Structure formats: C-alpha cells, structure tokens
C-alpha cells in the first residue's frame, strides 16, 4: 500500500538493509538521544503517560532548545522558521504556515 501511494505521488522510498543503522542514521540518532536523555530516565505508569512525555520532550527540549549537528548546530524550530522565511513567495497568501490570517505583502 505504501509503495503504491509513493509511486502515485512521485515519492521515492528510501530504506537500508534490515539491521543496518547506516541507511537511517538521523532517525537512529534521534531515537538514541530520546532514550538516553528522556525515556529511560523514569518508569512510565501507562503508555499514554509515555506518549505524552515523548511529545513534551520533543516540543520543549529537542525541537526548541537543542542544537542539531545535521542542520549546522541550529535549533530545529529556528532552522524551520529560517527555511520558510527564505522560501516564502514575494506575495504571501492571506494565511501563513501556522494557519493564522495575516496581511498580504505589499
């Protein structure tokens, strides 16, 4: 199903060999960091508690405060904002990327 969807939407799937971390090094690094800095440091009462803990960690620490080597030691949230600033069209639409209404560029 995924392969068919990818083909229909001109998306190239990229996977490495089973058991090889080199094909997906960024994801492997992220999950290692998540386990070492957050997940393994406590016992979770429920799956929902663990899920909420992971979301909180990503939103508060990982994406907003922690520099990442794969993006030139920038903080992901700031790198994303800079990307959208560099790539926005000259005449912005009335709705920005956060879904907020704004004024069109002059």
UniProtKB/TrEMBL annotation:
SUPFAM superfamilies: Ribonuclease H-like
One GO MF term attached to the UniProt entry: nucleic acid binding
GO biological process terms on file: DNA integration
Residue ranges occupied by any Integrase catalytic domain in the UniProt entry: 10-76
Gene3D superfamilies xrefs: Ribonuclease H-like superfamily/Ribonuclease H
Pfam families linked: rve_3
Protein name: Integrase catalytic domain-containing protein
């Amino acid at each position: 199903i995924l392969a068919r969807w990818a083909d229909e939407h001109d998306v190239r799937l990229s996977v490495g060999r089973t058991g090889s971390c080199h094909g997906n090094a960024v994801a492997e690094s992220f999950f290692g960091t998540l386990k070492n800095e957050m997940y393994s440091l406590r016992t979770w009462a429920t799956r929902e508690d663990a899920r909420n803990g992971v979301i909180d960690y990503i939103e508060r620490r990982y994406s907003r405060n922690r520099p990442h080597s794969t993006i030139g030691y920038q903080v992901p949230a700031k790198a994303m904002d800079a990307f959208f600033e560099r790539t926005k069209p000259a005449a912005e639409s009335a709705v920005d990327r956060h879904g907020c209404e704004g004024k069109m560029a002059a």
